[in-house]
Design the sequence.
């Protein structure tokens, strides 16, 4: 009987630890997204890109094109959003954050740009992966 109770307590503790870990992951991911909103809204594209994996393997899909690499993605942002009038103010609406495995989540949501040159809205799905203990976006599909 003692073994059964001990086993049940251990399973309960493991379940709680797993739930706390997932809550911490989601909070960390939401924090990165909040930092990105603020950086973008301040026309700080380099700051916005800090949420992304700084690698040539970063994958970005938008407008029917796939691009690879952190620097390429930053260069494309700079070309497409050269002034604060184009970047405007960014807001995300997160639909869900779903665990893929121990070190990866996908995030689906909407973005809203309020801009002088005209508002722009769309949807996104991004993949976060924990790399060297830090959550980074490794894949982004926006439209």
Sequence:
């Amino acid at each position: 009987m003692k073994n059964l109770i001990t086993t049940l307590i251990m399973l309960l503790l493991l379940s709680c630890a797993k739930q706390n870990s997932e809550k911490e992951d989601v909070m960390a991911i939401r924090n990165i997204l909040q930092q990105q909103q603020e950086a973008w809204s301040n026309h700080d594209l380099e700051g916005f890109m800090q949420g992304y994996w700084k690698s040539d393997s970063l994958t970005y899909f938008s407008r029917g094109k796939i691009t690879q690499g952190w620097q390429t993605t930053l260069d494309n942002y700079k070309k497409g959003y050269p002034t604060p009038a184009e970047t405007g103010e960014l807001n995300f609406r997160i639909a869900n954050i779903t665990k893929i495995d121990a070190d990866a989540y996908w995030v689906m949501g909407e973005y809203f740009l309020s801009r002088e040159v005209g508002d722009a809205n769309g949807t996104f799905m991004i993949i976060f992966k924990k790399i060297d203990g830090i959550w980074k976006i490794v894949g982004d599909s926006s439209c």
About this structure: Confidence is low (pLDDT under 50) at residues 8-17. The CA atoms of residues 72 and 108 lie 23 Å apart.
